[in-house]
Design goal:
The chain is an alpha/beta fold. The protein has 13 helices and twelve strands. It has two domains: about 240 residues, Aspartate Aminotransferase, domain 2; about 130 residues, Aspartate Aminotransferase, domain 1. The strands form two sheets. A seven-stranded mixed β-sheet has the order 1-7-6-5-4-2-3, with helices on both faces. A five-stranded mixed β-sheet has the order 8-9-12-11-10, covered by helices on one side. The structure holds pyridoxal-5'-phosphate. Pyridoxal-5'-phosphate binds next to helix 3 and helix 4.
């Protein structure tokens, strides 16, 4: 989608056209399974709704535009999008994956695709050059999540892209945590951007949805073939919710970032808090890379307590009132979570600890409520 407009304009207008029959300014929810043909093969570009749906088309075009890509493809969830990308692989292929990543991604790789003879290397990419140590003749793909979940490590996308290009590997970047407002991986040389639109893109905790964005036409064709053949497509109503959500992405993200900064600073100064992890801190190990590839630092924060035991952490989780105890992130409301027992419970404890994900780590998805109320809530919960 070549579009000269700036992001804030594209978030609202890209992909969206007044409905040709009524002029409706909002893309209708085309709740249909099929389309009537005038004669066999004589149709308006829409044959069957697994293959094409106009509400989905509008969203796919919008997502492509806001990620500075040519093509967008939507799926029934972020995991369905991950599944589609993994289906580009064949038995014997190897993938190099950042080792601190979404628990569900770890699970689908190790419990589903490993059964099909695909090998995954989960490695520390805080120095992207480490990727080189795992490349061999079978390597086909590099999978990066940045910022990582939940330790908020930052991986240098440009460096990972350079290594991937040298070895003709596909670079996939899960951009869910940053959102297109903060980071556009295709601009740094990634081949595929993945989103769980369930998070910041949808933004209102009311939809599960996934997306892929890319520039290469042949890659798009392969992934569109998988999208249609495997059928993990989103319904039109869910596409419509994401289309509605992205119209305010820039406004929401601005507040997520402002609130995130203030809360990160508050936690860091709190006498009972141990370590506060937020990529906006200048002493974050990869802050310089975050500054290079992100426009701001977001509202995802993790912290531990000085009283570093699981019960002290669970006590805080029980006491917050505005921060709701829930999995997920990126909605307008603030959430608090405990990765070890919630989002990352599918990773074995020894693997978790080896990666620095301690049992007392608490993760915040800072929402867009009033900052004073949010800080007050943390104050009474931490004590
Ligand atoms: C939530 C999430 C996913 C999975 O997306 P779903 O929409 O829940 O299937 C993948 N990656 C990251 C970083 C996520 O946060």
């Amino acid at each position: 989608m070549a579009d000269k407009h700036k992001l804030a304009t594209r978030l609202i207008h890209a992909g969206v056209h007044p409905d040709p029959t009524t002029g409706a300014i909002m893309t209708p929810i085309y709740q249909t399974s099929t389309y009537v043909q005038a004669a066999p093969g004589d149709h308006k570009g829409y044959e069957y709704a697994r293959t094409q749906n106009p509400t989905r088309t509008a969203l796919q075009d919008a997502l492509a535009s806001i990620e500075n890509g040519q093509y967008g493809l939507c799926f029934g969830s972020g995991m369905a999008a991950t599944d589609a990308v993994a289906k580009l692989l064949q038995p014997g292929d190897e993938v190099i994956v950042s080792n601190d990543l979404y628990g569900g991604t770890y699970r689908i790789f190790t419990k589903v695709f490993a059964n099909y003879g695909i090998k995954f290397h989960f490695i520390d990419m805080s120095d992207a050059q480490n990727i080189r140590n795992y490349i061999n003749g079978n390597t086909k793909m590099v999978w990066v999540e940045t910022p990582t979940n939940p330790l908020l490590n930052i991986i240098d996308i440009e460096a990972a892209a350079k290594i991937s290009k040298e070895h003709k590997l596909l670079l996939v970047v899960d951009n869910t945590f940053a959102s297109p407002y903060l980071q556009n991986p295709l601009d740094f040389g990634a081949d595929i951007v993945l989103h769980s639109a369930t998070k910041y893109l949808g933004g209102h905790s009311d939809v599960v949805h996934g997306a892929l964005i890319m520039n290469d036409a042949a890659l798009e064709e392969k992934l569109r073939f998988i999208q249609n053949s495997c059928g993990a497509v989103p319904g039109p109503h869910d596409c419509w919710l994401v289309l509605r959500g992205i119209k305010t992405l820039h406004v929401r993200m601005q507040r997520h970032c402002e609130n995130g900064k203030k809360i990160a600073e508050y936690l860091r100064s709190h006498p009972k808090v141990g370590k506060t992890i937020w990529c906006g801190f200048e002493d974050h190990p990869n802050h310089a890379i975050a500054k290079k590839q992100m426009r701001d630092f977001g509202g995802m924060i993790s912290f531990t307590l000085k009283d570093d035991n699981i019960n002290a952490a669970l006590e805080v989780l029980k006491k917050t009132k505005l921060f709701s105890l829930a999995e997920s992130l990126g909605g307008v409301e603030s959430l608090i979570g405990h990765p070890a027992t919630m989002t990352h419970a599918s990773i074995p404890q020894e693997d978790r600890i080896a990666r620095g994900l301690s049992d007392s780590l608490i993760r915040l998805s800072v929402g867009i409520e009033d900052i004073d109320d949010l800080i007050e809530d943390l104050k009474q919960a931490i004590g």
